Amino acid sequence: MKTPVSHITILLSILFCLPLISLAQGYQVNLQGQAQQGMASAGTAFIQDAASVFYNPGGMSFLDKSQVIGGVTPTISNGLFTEAETGEYGRTTSPVGTPFAAYGVYKLSDSSKLSFGLGVYTPFGSTVEWEEGWAGRFAVTRLQLMSIFVQPTLSYKLTDAIGVGAGFVYSYGKVNLQKDLPLQFQNGEYGSVELDGTGSGFGFNAGIYFEPVKWLSAGFTYRSQVNMNLNKGMSTFTVPSSLEENFPSGNFTSSLPLPSIVTLGFSFKPNEKLTIALDINHVGWVAYDTLAFDYEVNTESLEDTKSPRNYENTFAFRLGAQYDFTEKTAARAGISYGISPVSNGYVTPETPDANRVSYTVGFGYAIKERLKLDASLLYTQVTRTDKNIETNLEGTFKVIAFAPGLSISYLFK
C-alpha cells in the first residue's frame, strides 16, 4: 500500500513553480517584459523601460523618466504523450494561462542619480490538465498554481557609466494538485487525492550596469535562490471505505527551492537604428536534489517521503535584436537555447523538459509622446522520451506552445 503515496509525493515536484509545461527550463520561465520578450528575454545590458526592475536593477537609474508599465502574456500549449508499451495517446486540455507583470520606476528629478522601483509579477504559474483516463493519470490529472513576486528596488547611478541596484523579493504562492490513485471502488472508478496549500519565500535581485560608450554596454545580475515553504498544506483522499484509515486526510509540510540565476549580458549598437543584445544565464538547479514531504498523520500506507530529483546546473543563451524604424516604431526578434536540468529518469508530466530552441518576435509603438505599446510572440516546442524511475511512466512527450503578449507603458513628465 505504500506505492500510491510515493507517487503522490513525486507529483508535487514543481509545487509553486510550474509555468506552462512547455515554456520553462526546468520550472523557470521568462515572461517579465514585452520589449525584452520580443528579443528572447535578453534585457540585462539593454535598458529600455521599467522592466529593468527585474532584468537589471543596476540599469534602472539610467532611465530618463519616471514611468509605469503593465502587461500580460496569455500562454497557449498543446501537449501529447505517447506511452512506450501500448502506443496509447494522452493529450492536455489545459486552459489559457495569463501571467502578468507590472513595474514602476520613480526618479526624484530627471537628473537624479537615485531611482526607486517596484515590480509585481508572476514568474511561475499556470494550469496543466490532462484528458480523463490518460496513461499518466496516477501521476497527475490536474495541477493549478499561482505565484506572485513583489520586488521593491533601489538603483544608484555611481557615474555616467556605472549603475548599481538591488531589490528585496517576497514570493507568495498557491497550489492545487489532483491525481488518480490505483485503488478501485466497487463500481470500477479509481480513488483520487487532492493536495492544496499556500506558501511563501524571500530572496533578492541585484545587478550592475556598465556603459563605457553609447554603442556598447554590459550588465551582470544575481537573482538569489528562494525557498518556497508550505507549512499547512491540506491533503484530501477519496478512497474505498475499507482504506480510509490508511489514507487519512490532513495537513502536510514541504519546501521547494527556486534556483539562483547569474546572468552576464552585453548590448551592441552597430548603428543608430540597430541594437543587438546577448544574455547568458547560469541557473543553480543543483539545489533541487530532493523533494521531501512531512505528513502530520502517518500510517503504514502514508509515510513521510524523500524523492530524489538530481537536477543539474545549466546554461541558457538568449540573442535578440531591435531595429528602430522611426522614433515611434521598433521591430524585435530573438532566439534562445536552453539546456534542460532534468536528468534521464526524472522527467515528469508537469515538466517534460528537454533542451530547446525558442523563437520570438516583437513590436513597439509610441501611441503618444508618453504612451507606448509593446507586443511580443514566443514559440517553442519540446520532445522528450524517458522512463521515470519512480512512477515507471515511460513514453514520449511532445509539447508545442505559443505565448503572445501585450503591455502599455506611461512616462511621466
Please explain how this structure is put together.
The protein has 413 residues and is mainly beta. It has helices at residues 3-10, 34-37, 52-55; strands spanning 67-72, 76-83, 89-91, 100-107, 114-121, 125-129, 142-157, 162-184, 190-213, 216-223, 226-238, 250-258, 261-268, 274-283, 290-295, 305-308, 314-324, 329-338, 356-366, 371-387, 394-411. It has a single domain (3-411), classed as Outer membrane protein transport protein (OMPP1/FadL/TodX) (Porin). The protein contains 3 helices and 21 strands. It has a 14-stranded antiparallel barrel.
Order of helices and strands: HHHEEEEEEEEEEEEEEEEEEEEE
Total tally of structural domains: 1
Q: Write down how many β-strands occur, each being a DSSP E stretch of 2 or more residues.
A: 21
Give the overall silhouette.
elongated
Quickly give the CATH architecture: Beta Barrel
Spatial arrangement of strands, main beta sheet: 1-4-5-7-8-9-10-13-14-17-18-19-20-21
- Ranges where pLDDT stays below 50 over 5 or more residues in a row are 1-22
Which fold does the CATH topology refer to? Porin
* Biggest beta sheet attributes: 14 strands, antiparallel, barrel
Q: What share of the residues does DSSP label as strand, in percent? A: over 45%
Supply the number of helical segments: 3
Rg from alpha-carbon coordinates: 23 Å
Overall structural class, as computed from helix and strand content, comes to: mainly beta
CATH class: Mainly Beta
- The overall average pLDDT, rounded, is 86
The protein's oligomeric status is single chain
